[in-house]
Amino acid sequence: ARAGVIVVAAGSGQRLGHGIPKARVLCAGRTLLEHALESVIASGVAGAVVVVLPAGDPVLSAVVAEAALRSVYPTSITAVAGGATRAASVRAGLAALPPTVGVVLVHDAARAITPPAVFQRVAALVSAGASAVIPVLPVVDTIKVVEDGIVTATPDRALLRAVQTPQGFDADALRAAHAGDAAGDATITDDAMLMEASGVPVRVVEGDALAFKVTTPFDLVVAEAVLAAGVA
Ligand code: CTP
Ligand code: MG
């Protein structure tokens, strides 16, 4: 069965600094949301796609409506309004997914040029029975723990991974985690961390350098250069 895919695109994009929601920012002539939806659809894993938007955004609503018009059975694409935090936006997306969906992928629209193969790797492992799956990459920099300006620890880099999206979950396990005590914890930054807090084992698959998150103006330049070079 195909996965339910929640694309969270309700953030304001403060660090990118364009003064409009990040998903609306143009990259090589198209919005970041259009790029993200193209990867989701091209992966072929998506059944119901729910795009979580800033409330009342006419431009992004039109992007989703356009994608819905072009979508081919069995893929449906709908939009819902997001919340004040990423976690609240994920919960809005979860509530809008058909209750019959067994596998849910949660993806950041800001990871706009994520290769379809990453969706396929994540969806395949969840479909094979894993409760939670995240795409990861090795960490290239040495990472320090710093407290009050002083380095207090250097974790073994071989044990560290940088985490990307889409993150894939058994739908019931994700719903339970989002309904549990940890759901309101502001220090929990992604759905996998919420699953860890619920005691669910989280497995990893190989991520991709192209699944980087467009966060800063530098990242937008990189995404445009990648698209111009035809690498993505
Ligand atoms: N997101 C969301 N709802 C929120 C906050 C974030 O749907 N209330 C989404 C963003 O749209 C983005 C993803 O979560 O696709 C990752 O968040 P981030 O990169 O932090 O995006 P923004 O919050 O928009 O950026 P910033 O933190 O710089 O304002
Ligand atoms: Mg943010």
Helix and strand layout, with pairings?
Elements: E1 3-8, E2 26-27, E3 30-31, H1 32-43, E4 46-53, H2 58-70, E5 76-81, H3 86-96, E6 103-108, H4 116-127, E7 132-138, E8 145-147, E9 150-153, E10 161-163, E11 167-170, H5 171-179, H6 191-197, E12 203-206, H7 217-229
Parallel strand pairs: 1-4, 1-6, 4-5, 7-12
Antiparallel strand pairs: 2-3, 6-11, 7-10, 7-11, 8-9
Helix pairs in contact: 1-4, 5-6
Task: Give an overview of the whole structure.
The chain is an alpha/beta fold and 232 residues long. The protein has one domain: Spore Coat Polysaccharide Biosynthesis Protein SpsA, Chain A, CATH 3.90.550. Helices cover 33% and strands 24% of the residues. The chain has 7 helices and 12 strands. Strands 1, 4, 5, 6, 7, 10, 11 and 12 form an 8-stranded mixed sheet that branches. Strands 2-3 form a two-stranded antiparallel ribbon. Helix 2 (58-70) links the parallel strand 4 (46-53) and strand 5. It is globular and about 55 Å long. The two termini are 27 Å apart. Cytidine-5'-triphosphate binds next to helix 3. Cytidine-5'-triphosphate binds at residues 8-15, 22-23, 52, 82-86, 89, 108-110, 213, 215. Its EC number is 2.7.7.60. The record marks 157, 213 as: Positions MEP for the nucleophilic attack. The record marks 15, 22 as: Transition state stabilizer. GO terms for molecular function: 2-C-methyl-D-erythritol 4-phosphate cytidylyltransferase activity.
